[in-house]
Write a structure and sequence with these properties.
single chain; 261 residues; alpha/beta; TIM Barrel; 8-stranded parallel β-sheet; 8 strands
């Protein structure tokens, strides 16, 4: 039987969840992130070095997540039924899909994550997700459909124009706003511009209207950004990525040393 996805239950209960992106492709780092207490880690195959075709390395990352207890999600490079099936068959509990622009695209993504008759996911019980048949039960297909998460990434003007329909698609668990991509497409090299800020505000308002959490990115000092995010009502917090967290702590240490030597 498929293990229940605790993120879905926590969001349903109104709890705040926190995670990060994994760029390093290291199972060791995956375990460390769990020991730090994160709820989820998003394996990045769009910008990170681990591609969905590298199933052996990807499998090791999923094993590390499961052994440690953190929920593994995956940012796939693009919307693709085959890529989605590969990562879900290996045991990922959801997909983050970049460059989503319409509700129709999101509906197809949901179908990519669902077994028939609810979707188009290829049905096989010999996969790692089904414990190579050892975990297969009569309700496996139904439980998989209930537990796999769908997370669209809004990164363009077209997506923002369609955001009200996007967040109403049944099966969307939470959403991301890609502020940097949005800004660069709009002609800005920073997210701190009026157009992007209006788009973020508009997206946030519609996500709240339809009870779809919008992920909030956290930046150092975390004692301030976490408090502000929670005070603002954010329920999905994302602290950059493993590489930026490593850089942040080491560079702050070097800076502190430079100030005294």
């Amino acid at each position: 039987m498929l293990k229940p996805n605790p993120l879905k239950q926590k969001l349903s209960d109104g709890k705040v969840i926190v995670g990060t992106f994994l760029f390093s492709s290291s199972p060791v780092v995956m375990e460390i992130l769990d020991h730090a207490g994160l709820d989820f880690v998003i394996i990045d195959t769009e910008h990170g070095p681990t591609g969905t075709v590298d199933t052996q390395k990807f499998g090791h990352l999923i094993r590390a997540a499961e052994s440690a207890g953190v929920v593994p999600l995956v940012r796939i490079p693009e919307r693709s039924r085959i890529m989605t099936q590969k990562v879900l068959d290996l045991g990922a509990m959801g997909v983050v899909v970049p460059m989503v622009e319409t509700a129709e695209e999101v509906e197809e993504i949901v179908k990519d994550c669902r077994y028939p008759p609810a979707g188009n996911r290829g049905a096989c019980y010999l996969t790692r997700a089904a414990k190579y048949s050892a975990g297969f039960t009569g309700d496996y297909w139904e439980k998989a459909n209930e537990n796999i998460m769908v997370i669209p990434l809004v990164e363009s003007k077209t997506a923002v124009e369609n955001i009200e329909k996007i967040v109403q698609v049944e099966g969307v668990d939470f959403a991301f706003f890609g502020g940097r991509d949005y800004s660069m497409k709009a002609g800005y090299n920073t997210v701190q511009n009026p157009e992007t800020q209006r788009a973020i505000k508009h997206t946030q308002e519609l996500c709240e209207k339809y009870n779809v959490p919008l992920a909030r990115f956290l930046y150092p000092p975390f004692s301030e950004s976490v408090k502000k995010a929670v005070d603002d009502g954010a329920r999905v917090l994302v602290a950059g990525g493993d590489v930026s967290l490593l850089y942040s702590i080491t560079s702050s240490m070097v800076k502190a040393l430079d100030e005294v030597r």
